[in-house]
Amino acid sequence: MKKYTFTEKKDTRSGFGAGLLEAGRNNPEVVALCADLVGSLKMEAFIKEFPERFFQIGIAEANMMGIAAGMTIGGKIPFTGTFANFSTGRVYDQIRQSIAYSDKNVKICASHAGLTLGEDGATHQILEDIGLMKMLPGMTVINPCDYNQTKAATIAIAEHHGPVYLRFGRPVVPIFTDADQKFEIGKAWMVNEGADVSIFATGHLVWEAIQAGEKLAELGIDAEIINIHTIKPLDAEAVLKSVAKTRCVVTAEEHNRLGGLGDSIAQLLAQNNPTPQEYVAVNDSFGESGKPAELMTKYGLDADHIVKAAQKVIARKG
Amino acid sequence: MTENELAQKSNQYRQRILKYIVGANAGHTGGSLSCIDILNVLYNYTLNVSPQNFSSPDRDRYIQSKGHCVEALFVVLADKGFFPEEDLNTLCKYQSHYIGHPTKKVKGVEQNTGALGHGLPISVGNALAAKMDEKDFRVFTLMGDGELPEGSNWEAALTAAHYKLDNLCAIIDKNSLQITGSTADVCNTDPIDEKFESFGWAVKHVDGHDLKALKEAFDSLPFEAGKPSLVIAHTVKGKGVSFMENQISWHHGVPSKEQYADALKELSEAL
User: Does the predicted interface ipTM exceed a cut of 0.85?
Assistant: First the structure.
């Protein structure tokens, strides 16, 4: 098992903030809109440097999505910022018609996704957003795993033409990917090559998958760990290549098991190479209040659950 | 174009709206007839929009929030030369771009619309972008009075005033009827003027079938510097065909062969 270490923890939303500033410096067409969550989305640095390119919309998310769609005329690249819940479910019709169906170059940037939002509880802990967004034709869906990857992804989406959903989170988490990495949309990252089981992980679950990989190595299991940061378009080649070797799959995500990364992988495999698969995901449930780590354990989204899922799926191999 | 020529156009547009709705056996008859005079004045008098300048970043923008009345828009765009009118024989047919709501696949259409309450937020975005780029084009959006209860309209109304978007003009086609009944009965939004004024807009009332009054209203934009403008156009659903006027059944009704002949006769005689 390849060794991953970290010296610092940071929230992925800060990676977004840093990436937005850099994207703004790279391209004068980048503009930002926010629904009263400037601090939560870490947009202050962009606003300080580019006050004339920032638009406070207030708590009116549907309006924000429509305005963002309208602002694309003349080549502007609007980045919207609010919590994941209000970036998707609350404004689905606006995104569907005015952004996705209209092929607008809007970047929907969503913080506080999933259980790790923590104390605020179920109303704000959206676990359905990946599914909602990946179902929209033409929408790119990205869920980076740490500060550096989120920063790189934010810079990359500014250079990609088309609507994008970028999902990140609230808590501080280990930084274990390279600083100043080049982020390639739709290209999976091989975290660890292995032979016994393919673990496909996204977002906060990538670090958990690495921890699980180390535990599995101690048990004599050689896990292949692949980071699927781009859920749509899915890197089918990377998935199929890995599964041809390992013949069993664990998917890991901070999302409902219905409609998320696991379903995307399962659909690909059902059509190309039917393979035993175990889901590490929330079992069709809303969340609740608690510390992120407490919730991740309760809902089965930690390294230990990935280890158990790997053992189970290996046993299912013919 | 003289007033008389404009009036003739309105009459011809009404005949064509009915023709293509009958051909498609689908469409929104009453609302298309209520808003057609507004579209006539916009495209033949007010807007700096033509097939020749449609790729110019400096053109005026028109976004039809009440997308279901697409027949009115398509007939006017065809007349302006954006596409051959005979294309409309495919309206709402399989594999046609001329679908039941505006789509950018049709030349001349600025924005896909259909679900209501979208036009104003998008127009606010257009107007904000214009201000940012220091462009002097104007943004117009046509809304139905029936779509006013959509909350996104009021969110956008706040933003438009907050950012002092006096390059934005919203027009309400106030025909006072919607699919279920009168707007007053379904969800009363009156007084619309006081509501928008309290949100920071400058408002004018106009007879939405008086071409001269519409011209004058649009000529006087912005109604007040630093404020978005609202035109409340008082209209009659089904206007121009006596048996359709003010009848809810014509919201989505398609004329029979006999009704179509009667309607054409009435419109021809009015020319």
Answer: yes
**Below-70 pLDDT ranges, chain A:** none
Tell me the C-alpha distance between B246 and A37, whole Å.
47
Class for the domain spanning B3-270: alpha beta
**Which residues of chain A are within 8 Å of residue B114 when distances are taken between CB atoms?**
97
Q: How far apart are CA A66 and CA B62, in angstroms?
A: 15
CATH number of residue A112's parent domain: 3.40.50.970
Name the burial class of residue A90, with classes exposed (0-12), middle (13-18) and buried (19+) by CB atoms within 10 angstroms of its CB: middle
Nearest-Cα distance to chain B for A99, in Å, is 9
CA distance A87 to chain B (A): 15
**pLDDT single digits (tens) B194-223:** 999 999 999 999 999 999 999 999 999 999
Q: Which residue of B has its CA nearest to A68?
A: B125
Q: Please check whether residues A41 and A156 belong to one and the same domain.
A: yes
Domain count, chain A: 2
Phi-psi sector, A185: left (phi>0), alpha (psi -120 to 50), beta: beta
Across A35-92, the runs of DSSP E, i.e. the strands, are 54-56, 77-83
Q: pLDDT tens, A256-286? A: 999 999 999 999 999 999 999 999 999 999 9
Say if pTM beats, i.e. exceeds, 0.80.
yes
Q: Name the nearest CA neighbour of B116 among B225, B182, B36, B28.
A: B28
- A190 bridge partner residues: A226
In the structure encoding, which two tokens stand for residue A154, read together? 């934010």
Query: How far apart, in whole angstroms, are the C-alpha atoms of residue B189 and residue B208?
Result: 18
What single-letter amino acid sits at A184?
A: E
CB B128 within 8 A of CB B160: no
- Rounded distance, CA A109 to CA A106, Å? 9
